[in-house]
From TrEMBL:
Official protein name in the record: Aldehyde dehydrogenase family protein
One Gene Ontology MF term: oxidoreductase activity, acting on the aldehyde or oxo group of donors, NAD or NADP as acceptor
Domain named Aldehyde dehydrogenase: residues: 25-479
PANTHER family linked: ALDEHYDE DEHYDROGENASE-RELATED
Source organism of this protein record: Salinadaptatus halalkaliphilus
Length: 488
């Protein structure tokens, strides 16, 4: 069974040093089901003293964890992945209730979370240094060492897979982790902490402290004994986290969103492009994805046909409570619902009525927004420049390859970009010229746990996933030995 009896408990606590415990303040957060607007549970709301306690526990545990052999660390992380997979169904129920996404997507997200631990379990004894040739009189080599205690600020849109995306490599390298989950979705994070402990991660090497970002999040970022920070979230908060880390000369990597171009050329497989466009912005977490394809840049020669077919396809999508497993679930919170609603109103004033979807009905229960498309948008419009984080698509026509690149790059972000074309040379030119950390060709969200992910510009810096993700949680030490001349 899942720890905390995850589908039925109505009270959750912090997880520190191998034990659940209330917050020092006694305060609690209410976690809401965004489909019903009813409480799911309450969770202890951590603050400065709780972060202190978690960091102290992590500091005490880190050396022993690092000195555990890489092989044994790998076995423990592998068991963690198995524990997540074994509890997938119960965790998926809890994830859907706290986040709103369709239950099938919650199960998939848990499978990805398990895969992160499986992947990095296999990397613990393969994260190798190198020898550097300096001549006969020297032996020079490098060693990867853990940062120490790492802080992980996890967002609400993928609260389990993004927990695993940074915690698994941090633990693999030998760090001890303190996780601050989003206040909207803290429940699954607490359960994941317990599952890792059950799998054999030592007490104190994994700690989960739910709480408000301005209290627990700030305390974690500013803590003198935290040696590195992994942050995923909004641009303003990411900038604050980066500035705080810079003042402390502390390593940090930031993933802060995007406004991603999805470019469709006339020679593309249009059926594939249509299906992938729907996935990119509507049917994956209701568009609440940093790498969503929220700007559809479509060639003028196929614009009318493509948009007509897209509208026809979008009208078949079902919207409803996540536990009913629709195509599109509820947005995560009232705040996010109001943000998306405001942008639909902005789009209506900028472009005119959307060709499908529109301003949601506030009289209905739940934070549901119909998939919405604005056709004939300009790249200068706010709905084309600002991250909406919801199921809202701007359609922008283009005339040739050069214009497509200009439009794609005309944004302050640089996270992902996609192209649909059968011309391999064009695809590679696009990949060369577009400003993005990851480029999708003929498939949106292409890649996987094994492929590095991250952005440029306002999308942040640093890379997660893949073997490169290990480097974010390690320092490189160089050792140079003068072995002298050969003795006669």
């Amino acid at each position: 069974m899942c720890p905390n009896n995850a589908t039925t408990d109505d009270e959750y606590d912090l997880f520190i040093d191998g034990e659940t415990a209330p917050a020092a303040s006694g305060e609690r957060l209410v976690v809401e089901d965004s489909a019903t607007e009813e409480p799911v549970a309450t969770v202890s709301a951590g603050s400065d003293p709780d972060i202190d306690r978690a960091v102290d526990a992590a500091r005490d545990a880190q050396r022993d964890w690092h000195e555990t052999s890489p092989v044994e660390r790998g076995r423990i992380l592998g068991r963690a992945g198995e524990r997540i997979e074994a509890n997938k169904d119960a965790l998926a129920q809890l994830l859907t209730r706290e986040n709103g996404k369709p239950i099938s997507q919650s199960r998939t997200e848990l499978e990805v979370a398990a895969r992160y631990f499986e992947y990095y379990a296999g990397a613990t004894d393969k994260f190798q240094g190198e020898t550097i040739p300096l001549g006969a009189e020297h032996v020079d080599y490098t060693v990867h060492e853990p940062l120490g205690v790492t802080g992980h600020i996890v967002p609400w849109n993928f609260p389990t897979s993004l927990f695993a995306r940074t915690v698994a490599p941090a633990l693999a390298v030998g760090n001890a982790a303190v996780v601050k989950p989003a206040e909207q979705t803290p429940l699954t994070a607490v359960v994941l902490g317990e599952l890792l402990d059950e799998a054999g991660v030592p007490d104190g090497a994994i700690n989960v402290v739910p709480g408000d970002g301005t209290t627990a999040g700030a305390a974690l970022t500013e803590h003198d004994d935290v040696d590195g920070i992994a942050f995923t979230g909004s641009v303003p908060t990411g900038a604050e986290v980066a500035a705080t880390a810079a003042r402390q000369l502390k390593p940090v990597h930031i993933e802060a969103g995007g406004k991603n171009p999805n470019v469709v050329f006339p020679d593309a497989d249009l059926e594939q492009a249509l299906e992938q466009t729907v996935i990119s912005i509507f049917s994956r977490n209701a568009g609440q994805v940093c790498s969503a394809g929220d700007r559809l840049i479509v060639h003028q020669d196929i614009h009318d046909e493509f948009v007509d077919r897209l509208v026809e396809r979008v009208r078949t999508l079902t919207v409803g409570p996540g536990l009913d497993d629709p195509d599109v679930g509820a947005l995560v919170s009232e705040t996010q619902y109001k943000t998306v609603k405001d942008y639909i109103e902005i789009g209506t004033s900028e472009v005119g009525e959307p060709i499908v979807g529109g301003v949601p009905d506030d009289t209905e229960t739940g934070y549901f927004v119909e998939p919405t498309i604005f056709d004939g948008a300009s790249n200068d419009h706010r709905i084309s420049q600002e991250e909406i984080f919801g199921p809202v698509l701007s359609v922008i026509p283009f005339s040739d390859e050069a214009e497509a690149i200009d439009i794609a790059n005309d944004t302050e972000y640089g996270l992902t970009a996609g192209i649909f074309t059968e011309d391999l040379r064009r695809a590679h030119r696009f990949a060369r010229d577009v400003v993005a950390g990851q480029v999708y060709v003929n498939e949106w969200f292409a890649g996987g746990v094994e492929t590095p992910f991250g952005g440029t510009r306002q999308s942040g810096f640093g890379r997660e996933k893949g073997l490169e993700g290990l480097e974010q949680f390690a320092e490189t030490k160089n050792v140079c030995v003068n072995i002298g001349h050969t003795q006669e």
